[in-house]
Structure formats: structure tokens, C-alpha cells
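Me: Here is a favour to ask of a fellow structure person. Could you put it straight underneath, so I can go through it closely?

Assistant:
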Amino acid sequence: MRYLDLEALERMDARAFQRQQPYPWANPAGLLTAEGYAALRDSLPPVESFTAVFGKARRHGQQSHDRLALEYSPGLALSPHWQAFVDELSGPHYRQFMTRMLGTRAFRLRFHWHYTPARCSVSPHCDAREKLGSHIFYFNTEDDWRAEWGGQTLVLDDGGRFDSRSAPAFEDFERIIESRALGNYSLLFRRRGNSWHGVRELSCPPGHYRKVFIVVIDERQPLRQLSRRIKGLFGRAA
């Protein structure tokens, strides 16, 4: 079985993605094959294997991003479908796709799952500088979720007004673009200085979870990263 739809990946327009406003983003349908998506959804990791991450302080006064989280590492107990999918994501086809979309080969990938219960949210924020972007795969469908419960990732346009080290509220943004997050959709975005995004508070009933799998794209430039660490150490010493 194949999980990534290679033809769908090829159809993604890198130039249009890079020109998107307020920063590069795309919310395509069907980057996974129908058969692969169903198999992954039916064999998602059990909630018991996740770690609760609640009330964790964030920099710049932003609200905590509360959820259950599971980080991928080699040897993690997964269904054969999920391990095969991670292998595809680590393989040449997906890497070529990501290189074309981001315009660089200098990156590495890591993976995690987030399950989010009712009354939790992801406050508006910009990702850390070492992240080039994220690719979020949504695994709720109409069988277990309703659109009015929330869960859509919001692309937020600040019009260039906010420092990334601040804590604006959703209503402070000039424009809010709501992604489609039910069924075989994903959201790919590239970090910029203004790449604000978030998820409003969920209103699902108890026992329901917003379920996403995230490919995190980290910068791989050792000299630049070493320079940042050194500057950070001197900054703390001062």
C-alpha cells in the first residue's frame, strides 16, 4: 500500500505556495491516497500512549498550548501502517517534494501526533526560528467530529504590526484564514517573521479529540545554529 499520493504531490505549485500571503501556506486535499488515509486513521496511536502537556509556560506571555502529545522516535510501537507512512515521509519522494516547496535542501524532519480535548486551544504564535515550517495532516472526519467544534488551523494576518515576541489575541488580527481540517486535508506552511497561526478553543464533547499528525521541518545549517547558541549564551550571561 502507498500512503502518499505522488501525483498529488507533483501537482502542488511551489511558485504559488511561495507567493501566498501573508506567508507561504497551502491547504490541499488528497495528498494521501484514499486507501492509505483510511488505514492510518483506523490505526492511530492509542490515547494511552500520549503524554499530557498542560499549563506549560510559553515565552512572550502567550497562553499555554494544552494537548496530549506523542513524539516519534525509532522503535516506537506503531501499527505497520504508521511505520510504513513514516518511512515514506523519510524517503526520497517526500524529501524532493519538500525541497521543491521550500526552495532548500537544508532541512531535517521530525514527527509527532497531537490529540487535543475540549476547552483547549493554540494561542496565536510564530514558530521558533530554527523551524522552517510544518506540514499538518488532519485525522478527524465527519464520523467523529463536527466543524462547529473547531479544530481548524487559522492562518493569521497581522499586517506587519506585531512583534513575533508578543501575545496578540485572535481578534487583534486584520485577517483570519480558516483551513479545512475534516477528512483527507493537510496544511503546509513555511515560517516567516510574520507566520502567525493558531487554533481557537475547542468546543467538542468530552471524550472527543482533535487529532493531527505533524511533520516538523527544522533548519539544518550547523554553523548558523551554533552562532545562535553562542549568542544566546552570551545574552543570558549579560
Q: What stands out?
A: The CA atoms of residues 64 and 127 lie 14 Å apart. The longest helix spans residues 222-237.
